[in-house]
Inverse folding.
């Protein structure tokens, strides 16, 4: 399941979904953009820094809201976007609950 399909499913079951997009490519020399729900969330010097920020914010959101569902949408070097949870496991979300 890709992040878009997961997002649509979660909308149907009424959870609050938050999607972080972490691209593989930088937008400029040493500049990675992190998006949260399709809005720019921050700029970082490395992809690892963007991922670390996304994980920190995702875990904060999870702790604050039981009804939240977090998707880390990470682009691989092959150009394919893959959805992960905050444990960096393939995203399964509330569909298994």
């Amino acid at each position: 399941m890709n992040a878009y399909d997961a997002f649509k499913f979660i909308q149907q079951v009424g959870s609050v979904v938050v999607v972080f997009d972490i691209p593989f490519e930088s937008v400029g020399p040493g500049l990675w953009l992190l998006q949260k729900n399709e809005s720019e969330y921050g700029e970082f010097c490395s992809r690892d820094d963007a991922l670390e920020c996304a994980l920190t914010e995702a875990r904060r959101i999870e702790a604050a809201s039981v009804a939240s569902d977090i998707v880390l949408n990470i682009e691989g070097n092959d150009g394919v976007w893959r959805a992960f949870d905050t444990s960096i496991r393939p995203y399964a979300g509330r569909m298994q609950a």
The longest strand covers residues 68-75.
